[in-house]
Design brief:
The complex is a heterodimer. By secondary structure, chain A is mainly α. Chain A has helices at about 5-35, 55-60, 65-95, 100-110, 110-115, 115-125, 135-140, 155-165, 170-180, 185-195, 200-210, 210-225, 230-235, 245-255, 260-285; strands at about 40, 50. Chain A has a two-stranded antiparallel ribbon. Classes of the chains: A mainly alpha, B mainly alpha.
Chain lengths: ~290, ~280
């Protein structure tokens, strides 16, 4: 066997396990989701094609799916504005390297390295009426009748779930900070020579230059809302009623109840919304243009 | 003069308020849970803000001995550890090829592998559930190990390809001239030089697997194969009135991740900044 062929064989051997993983746990599942979303399938008998029935059921069986879409829209809007905004604010502050900026950067990451399930349960106790810090604090400062049942009444449940992730925007901060630090010094020197003040540099130079990073932050934050499961399943379970329901919860119930076709139609919606968000946000932030 | 000093002071004040707020929201929930795990139920019910009267490790011993957390702890370490090792091994092989060799279709395969990062992981739940069922791996640790190691694919490939690209090709050529085989060139020469990238990918994969909840919930059922995040939920449902032990259990689940992170924070932050993914 000559050298060239032996190298080709080695390349194939080295790639084989990764390609197998890719086919088994990525490509096949994604194709399956798309195809069986159009079938009636309980996992025992083989899937039966039923056209758009699952999708019609999604919107017409009850209002759970529509409420899930409404919640996704609201949570995405909050994520893209307040959540990303807070992350960007922290990034711009840390960029100035005030005393202690490394400590802030380091601790801000902590909520992101621990289990989301544990985090959701922690927040359930924070909002607990008997022992939780929120209600006890409110009662301590004089609102002696403060007994909001956070995850169990509307609209408190929606607000409480939002608060479990609202401020934890460290990924946005790190991406934007990274991009800020990559701005060449000459750009700032030139602006300062032209008489720009600190605020003008931030507003008219730095902010436009990190637009792409902010766009990435928006995409990642909305994607996280599309896939949000623990924060709902371990706290309000979609309640009260179906007030805080979302698509991952519907997907989970579909699997548990062996309604696989139905579950996969919900999964398809999830994937498509994700792709749409990515396309729209990249366009809005003109993310493919290199500025300098 | 006076006019320019005031805004500066206010600016500084604002900056420090935001910084202190950031530290507070990031650490308070965990510190509160940890502190409360040393308080008795009565103390917790009496005043959620008070400090513990005595420090005792009894709640931790209880959780380990009476509620099987030792088993769940071992399961989590075994599953996350093995998934990380398996993933690192196979993605190092592929990362080496993508980083150092050229062949037809290379960019296409690489793009295809990494674009899957954009599909929300939960969306693939039903097909993955069925595949694991068919393989006879439902409710086994092996099944979870396999699924978790597959989750690292895009991220690990991204990091490892970049790492291998920085290792000079001259080294490979010199090794080949010395008669080293393809495998030895990879294992003895390239792999040791890729340590930092492997460590970063490994840390992110381990944290991701250690913290994973959704797939552990749908792919296992018996307590023998339960991981810590799922155990926490069962504990919460069954013993939620036992606050002390509950808080000790939560602490045990979150502390290892925090410790690992604090040891290697620079790597974790750098890779999050460049990939936007936390494992």
């Amino acid at each position: 066997m000559n050298k060239k062929w032996s190298t080709k064989l080695w390349i194939a051997i080295f790639l084989a396990p990764t390609i197998l993983m890719f086919l088994m746990f990525n490509l096949t599942p994604i194709v399956t989701v798309f195809v069986t979303g159009f079938t009636e399938w309980n996992g025992f008998s083989s899937p039966k094609f039923n056209g758009l029935d699952n999708y019609i059921n999604l919107v017409s069986y009850d209002d759970t799916f529509l409420i899930s879409l409404r919640n996704l829209f609201l949570w995405s809007a909050i994520a893209a504005t307040l959540h990303v905004g807070f992350g960007v604010l922290v990034a711009f502050i840390l960029y100035k390297r005030p005393f202690g900026w490394r400590v802030v950067r380091g601790t801000f990451m902590i909520p992101n390295v621990i289990s989301v399930a544990a985090w959701a349960i922690i927040y359930k106790f924070i909002f607990n009426d008997d022992i939780g810090v929120i209600n006890n604090f409110m009662r301590d400062i004089g609102f002696s009748d403060f007994h909001v049942k956070w995850f169990y009444e509307s609209p408190a449940a929606f607000i409480a779930i939002t608060l479990t992730w609202l401020f934890y925007a460290v990924i946005v901060t790190l991406i934007v900070l990274n991009e800020l630090m990559a701005i060449p010094k000459e750009v700032h020197e030139a602006a300062l020579l032209d008489g720009a003040n600190g605020w003008q540099v931030t507003r008219y130079i730095n902010l436009p230059l990190v637009k792409g990073a902010i766009g990435t932050g928006v995409i990642l934050s909305i994607t996280a809302r599309i896939a949000m499961f623990e924060e709902v399943a371990l706290t309000s379970r979609g309640g009260p009623g179906n007030d805080t329901y979302n698509i991952p919860l519907m997907l989970y119930n579909g699997i548990v109840n062996s309604e696989y076709g139905y579950a996969n139609s919900a999964a398809t919606v999830m994937i498509i919304i994700g792709v749409l968000v990515m396309i729209v946000v990249s366009r809005l932030f003109k993310m493919n243009e290199k500025i300098y | 003069m006076k006019n320019s000093v005031m805004p500066q002071i206010l600016g500084k004040l604002f900056i420090y308020i935001v910084m202190i707020f950031t530290i507070a929201v990031s650490t308070f929930p965990i510190l509160w849970i940890m502190m409360s795990s040393f308080k008795t139920n009565k103390e917790i019910l009496g005043n959620p803000f008070s400090l513990p009267q005595t420090i005792s490790l009894q709640p931790y011993i209880d959780v380990f001995q009476n509620y099987n957390f030792l088993i769940y702890f071992k399961n989590s370490i075994w599953i996350a550890g093995l998934a990380t090792l398996v993933g690192l091994f196979i993605y190092s092989l592929a990362g080496y090829i993508f980083g150092k060799f050229d062949f037809r279709g290379k960019n296409f395969i690489y793009a295809l592998c990494t674009i899957t990062l954009l599909v929300p992981g939960h969306a693939k739940a039903q097909p993955i559930f069925s595949i694991i069922m068919k393989l006879g791996l439902y409710d086994t640790k092996t099944g979870l190990i396999l699924v978790y190691s597959s989750f690292g694919l895009a991220l690990a490939l991204f990091i490892l390809r970049a790492t291998f690209m920085t290792i000079p090709k001259d080294l490979d050529e010199a090794a080949l001239i010395d008669g080293a085989s393809f495998w030895r060139t990879f294992w003895n020469i390239n792999l040791p030089l890729a340590k930092s990238g492997i460590a970063t990918a490994g840390i992110l994969m381990f944290l991701g697997s250690w913290n994973e909840y959704f797939y552990a919930l749908i792919l296992t059922t018996s307590s023998m194969n339960r991981t810590l995040p799922v155990a926490l939920q069962f504990f919460d449902e069954a013993f939620s009135y036992n606050y002390t032990n509950m808080f000790a259990a939560i602490t045990m689940v979150v502390l290892p991740g925090i410790i690992i992170y604090l040891i290697v924070q620079e790597q974790v932050q750098a890779s999050v900044a460049s990939t936007g993914v936390k494992g």
